[in-house]
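Morning. Coffee machine broken again, so started the prediction first thing and wrote up yesterday's gels while waiting. Chain of 136 residues, entered below exactly as on the submission form.
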Amino acid sequence: MTDWKLNVKVRSFSYKKRELKDDTGHGIGFVFDMRGIDNPGRIDSMKVLTGKDAAVIEYLENETRMPEFLQHIRNMLDITVSNYIERGFTLLTINFGCTGGQHRSVYAAEATAQYLQSRYPVNVELEHLERETWVH
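Came back before lunch.
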């Protein structure tokens, strides 16, 4: 038995602040555009919050189509992750982008990382690329 596991990088980012670059030699992987989901950052009481805060989570889960959108993503990832594990691949990168990289993409990255960690024998590395520029 081996200790090998697929490494999954899950990242959130801002389309306005950066262009994704491949630093692995394997390509940038999946890129999901979360801008089709209503933006809680446009609601005054949520501007200074992030996709990790309860009010934003409640809004995205109950007032938007985020759950449906993420289910479609999970369906694709189930196929890919299972295949990568079977084939012995070492890396999968999943990126979620939105306007500011603070609300929708952060929530989607957090939820996806949790989903994959609970479902598959993988190492998940979660990174919020815009964390230093979040509005406080």
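The chain has a mean pLDDT of 95. Going to sketch it on the whiteboard this afternoon.
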